Amino acid sequence: MRTRELGNLKVPAIGFGAMVLSPGIYGDxxxxxxxxxLGAALDAGAYHVDTSDAYxxxxxxxxxxxxxxxxxRDEVVIATKFGLAIPEGETARSFPVGYTFxxxxxxxxxRLVRRYAERSLRNLGTDVIDLYYVHYPDPGVxxxxxVAAMAELVRDGLVRHLGLSNVTAGQLRAAHAVHxxxxxxxxxxxxxxxxxxxxxxxxxxxxxxxxWSPLGNGFLTGTVSSLGEGxxxxxxxxxxxxxxxxxxxxYAPIKDMAARLGVTSAQLALAWLLHQDDHVVAIxxxxxxxxxxxxxxxxxxxxxxxxxxQLERALGAFEAEGxxxx
Length: 326
Fold this sequence. Notes:
The chain is built from ten helices and twelve strands. The chain has a single domain, classed as NADP-dependent oxidoreductase domain (TIM Barrel, Alpha-Beta Barrel). It has helices at 31-43, 60-68, 110-124, 143-155, 169-178, 196-205, 241-261, 265-274, 289-296, 305-316, and strands spanning 3-6, 9-12, 16-17, 48-50, 77-82, 93-96, 103-106, 129-134, 159-165, 183-187, 208-212, 280-282. Helix 1 packs across helix 2, helix 3 crosses helix 4 (143-155) and helix 5 (169-178) packs parallel to helix 6 (196-205). The two termini are 31 Å apart. Strands 3-4-5-8-9-10-11-12 form an eight-stranded parallel β-sheet. By secondary structure, it is of the alpha/beta class.
């Protein structure tokens, strides 16, 4: 697997987003299947594993990752996040999101940061987190205060590198002035461009970009025509039955391009993303080992400038129906 740099942290160009391995994301899944999928990702070179204390109930996803990497911790770059799994009795501040339920709740108070980290370390079964993100900025707490508390974790050897997730360019600059930020994790894919100001700030500061949902919550695989019961995507407007049908129709020309190139739609979407910047990495998630290996092959695809130009024209005509998640 080709590697890229997030600040001073070297990771594979395509890692693995573990969120899909918890029940209630893309429907039911048992832990045996989930651990098999993660093992397949590691075996294939996707050793940058992204999780969060909020994925699944009671730290389920972190605990699953911890079990799956037992005995091979030195092979893995563990990234996790905090702020949404708020300890009982603590303040929960709301902020709007594009899901049908309308809002999420966060607490990024500095006094809780070490408590969050220690809980994640226990869940993961490790003594250090390689890349630690605040999951969403707390609207009631200056980002500088949260990051100052995160910096203490680096000082004390509990965390190696700091990250920010779902932030603005201004928040990145303010945080980076307190402590170097290795990576910003934001949504970025063919159907959700990254904010231009955020990308410019990251480039200026030498901060890498970790693209979450690089396959558009699975849509860009070109295989999603309906959702099963218990699928979290029922909360995403772009996946309503009406919008999904329209979006698939509009995406058809890009699927056709993939077929002509002899690659899958997912591979084309990932390769396109990696061509956007030398310091962007993708963290697609999948539960199927063959799909995981297929996705990782996209890191070796080189798209000709003419192909990229054709793609940009096609994407310019591909306006997805339904709001975005942030």
